[in-house]
Amino acid sequence: MQEELSEALGQHVKRLELLQQGQIGDIYLASVEDQRYVVKTSEQTEKLAIEAHMLEDLYEAKIRVPHVILSKGSFLVLEYIETMSQAKTTQEIEAAKLLCRLHSVTNESRMYGYYYDTTIGPFPQKNEQTQYNWTLFLGQMRIMPMARHCYDSGKIPKQMVERLEGLCRDLYKRIDMRTIYPSLLHGDVWSGNVLFEREGACLIDPAIYYGDKEMELAFILLFGTFGETFFNVYQENHPLSDDFYENKVPLYQIYPLLVHVALYGGSYVGDLERILKRLKV
Fold first, then answer.
1. Does 188 qualify as catalytic in the annotation?
2. Is there a contact between 112 and 210 (Cβ–Cβ < 8 Å)?
3. How far apart are CA 162 and CA 201, in angstroms?
4. Owning domain of residue 123
5. Residues 19 and 53 placed together within one structural domain of the fold
6. Of the candidates 79, 113, 129, which is a domain's last residue?
7. Are 146 and 76 in contact (CB under 8 A)?
8. Per-residue pLDDT of the chain (281 residues; tens, 9 = 90+)
9. Which position among 57, 188, 205, 212 bears the catalytic label?
10. How many domains would you assign to the chain?
11. Among 40, 68, 86, 235, which residue has the fewest nearby CB atoms (within 10 Å)?
């Protein structure tokens, strides 16, 4: 593999160290001359190509992400981010500033989804670019496809799928769409996907699409990615909707919970059941 990578880069890779096992393949640290790169490998080459495309789109939108060095076949070579230790408060301030910029990016068509299908972890994210209705997009392109995947893989019972179908039919009654517009979302903001360097925060492993920006915030609350300082700074630019905590948080946590049910099953099924009961579904 070292020889293959050297040939693809046109540079001699002096050393290749395994960093971790990713969800679709192994991730390495490559030492090349006086530089280091992160190298993602996978037989699922189309998913690596999609990740490269997403990172390039975020880079063009002036959002700090690792620069794509090379995307070729089973290799995705990325800039190595030199992280540094920072106080929790500083991290939350920098993350809030970066996500405020990200969520200020919209599209001219005012449609939800994206220009091509993206991914979240090992799973596809369908992104029809014909949907002006946020609640239809959330139900038809996010919640129900993942619910069906969970059912097909034996992770949730049919009754839960039927309850989710009923909820999705009525989402328009539960979400006030008058103040929602398409914001560019990272889609997977857990602590491992936000790095901190000298210049501020950097996002990795995107799962992008255009959606309600509060979808991202509900995800952050679900996994405790950031706390009070983050939300205080964020709200200076994007005030939260009046029904955010009471209404949107449980509704918007359903999709990421389903993704985690699909990945890990177990306790996440119980978390999903608690949310459905809270919503009286």
1. yes
2. yes
3. 41
4. 88-278
5. yes
6. 79
7. no
8. 888 888 888 889 899 999 988 888 999 999 998 899 999 999 999 999 999 999 999 999 999 999 999 999 999 999 999 999 999 999 999 999 999 999 999 998 889 999 999 999 999 999 976 678 999 999 999 999 999 999 999 999 999 999 999 999 999 999 999 889 999 999 999 999 999 999 899 999 999 999 999 999 999 999 999 999 999 999 999 999 999 999 999 999 999 999 999 999 888 999 999 999 999 99
9. 188
10. 2
11. 235
| Total residues belonging to the chain | 281
Assigned token pair, 97: 């500033």
